[in-house]
């Protein structure tokens, strides 16, 4: 009987010691948060439920061999978008986009799936840095004066003509534009001759060596190339 009682007392003492030790490791007045939820069995976790265990600032680790670069050039055409859709959604070329909408023939072209185009769209900053507005021409000021050059219906007509010349200088009526070099030169809608080259990992439009910042999403009827400069439209 005594051995049994001794064993029982040893068990009780051991339990008390462990309890006291555990309490010392916890902060005073510690309470288990009521928001803690039981995680499901790992075998039953679905891909959707994984987001429940990530903080807003965390992202899932990419599997081995997965490309993490989101700036990769698109390689397929987006059959659901026209050029006009891409232009209107790209803020960095918003000025050029708004100018194209003022020209009926250009706007119609960008919404026509049967007419492919490579649009050389200058950045907002490139247009803002021009010495004059896209619809202005020094010859008009010299001939009609600053106050009359674009006044009245005739002046508005001159401004519209100049604006169209500017926009059409940035439209190549072909896409995709595959051949590089001067031998692959094409005529713009405005009549100018342009070509592109790749030098040290960067693409440039010639003449003028204007750097292409990026080739945006490919639409069902063409491509949008974002330029750091402006094509000569004089």
TrEMBL record:
Species this chain originates from: Helicocarpus griseus UAMH5409
Bias type Polar residues, positions: 41-58, 66-76
Protein name (record): FAS1 domain-containing protein
Domain FAS1 as annotated: residue spans: 80-231
Location of the region described as Disordered in the Swiss-Prot/TrEMBL record: 36-76
Keywords: Signal
Entry-linked Pfam families: Fasciclin (PF02469)
InterPro entries for this protein: FAS1_dom_sf (IPR036378), FAS1_domain (IPR000782), Mug57-like (IPR040200)
Entry-linked SUPFAM superfamilies: FAS1 domain
Domain of life: Eukaryota
UniProt-listed PANTHER family: FAS1 DOMAIN-CONTAINING PROTEIN YDR262W
């Amino acid at each position: 009987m005594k051995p049994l009682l001794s064993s029982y007392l040893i068990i009780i003492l051991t339990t008390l010691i462990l309890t006291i030790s555990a309490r010392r490791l916890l902060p005073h007045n510690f309470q288990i948060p009521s928001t803690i939820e039981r995680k499901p069995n790992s075998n039953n976790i679905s891909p959707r439920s994984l987001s429940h265990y990530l903080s807003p600032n965390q992202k899932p680790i990419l599997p081995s061999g997965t490309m993490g670069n989101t700036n990769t050039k698109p390689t397929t055409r987006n059959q659901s978008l026209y050029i006009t859709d891409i232009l209107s959604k790209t803020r960095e070329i918003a000025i050029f986009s708004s100018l194209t909408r003022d020209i009926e023939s250009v706007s119609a072209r960008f919404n026509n799936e049967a007419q492919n185009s490579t649009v050389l769209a200058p950045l907002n900053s490139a247009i803002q840095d021009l010495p004059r507005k896209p619809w202005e021409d020094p010859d008009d000021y010299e001939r009609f004066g600053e106050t009359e050059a674009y006044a009245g219906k005739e002046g508005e007509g001159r401004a519209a003509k100049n604006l169209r010349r500017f926009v059409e200088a940035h439209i190549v009526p072909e896409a995709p534009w595959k051949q590089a070099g001067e031998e692959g030169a094409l005529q713009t809608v405005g009549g100018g001759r342009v070509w592109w080259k790749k030098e040290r990992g960067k693409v440039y439009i010639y003449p003028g060596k204007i750097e292409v910042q990026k080739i945006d999403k490919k639409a069902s009827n063409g491509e949008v190339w974002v330029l750091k400069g402006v094509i000569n439209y004089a």
